[in-house]
Amino acid sequence: MPALSGGPRPANRQLLADYVYQELLSSLMDGRLEPGSGIGIDRMAAELEVSQTPIREALARLEATGLVRREALKGYRVAPLFTAEELGELMDARAVIEPAIAERACAHVTPELRAELEKAVDDLRGAPTGPTFAEYGAYWEADERFHRLIAASAHNRFLLNAYNALGGQVQRFRFFGNLGVTDAEHAIAEHTEILAAFESGDPSRARAAMAAHIDHVRDRAVKDAGSSPRS
User: Where in the numbering of this chain does the HTH gntR-type domain appear (predicted)?
Assistant: First the structure.
């Protein structure tokens, strides 16, 4: 297993847990942990100079994203490659769920939500999109935050649960694409159109803008998957 990046370790317990999570996530995204490989908790703890506890906590969080899997009596492994069939099913599910979420959220839009969505789009515009996760991680965080804010504002706990389940698989696809950010210009324009719908308070426009965004994301994802070094 290639070495983790390993930076300065914070002293606070919660900050330490977050630090370990980010270190493991970076190792996954940058390809230092390969699909299907085993994850040695002892070795990771030694490399990051921490106890096993924050390593186990980080792996449990990563399991929820679909990036790692826990196997009975075997421990954790990096999830297998994302197949073309899984990608199609994921995008089909997003096309069903996220436009409906956007429509409902826009019907309940508040000035606070508009401001938070605007900040997320501004953060997207200002985020770097370099080749490593340390460089493009802020971009993906702003992207995910934008969609999560909308999902959390739909006033439907079951739709939110469905979105959260999909969100983890989106992370998994991004990992196995191993392409960083390839569509920033298009994605920012599409997020801006969704934001405009929320600013106008038009739920049907929000639904259409989200549906168009997911459709374009699907097309770009299929194209990217074909050129991925891991495909």
Answer: 14-81
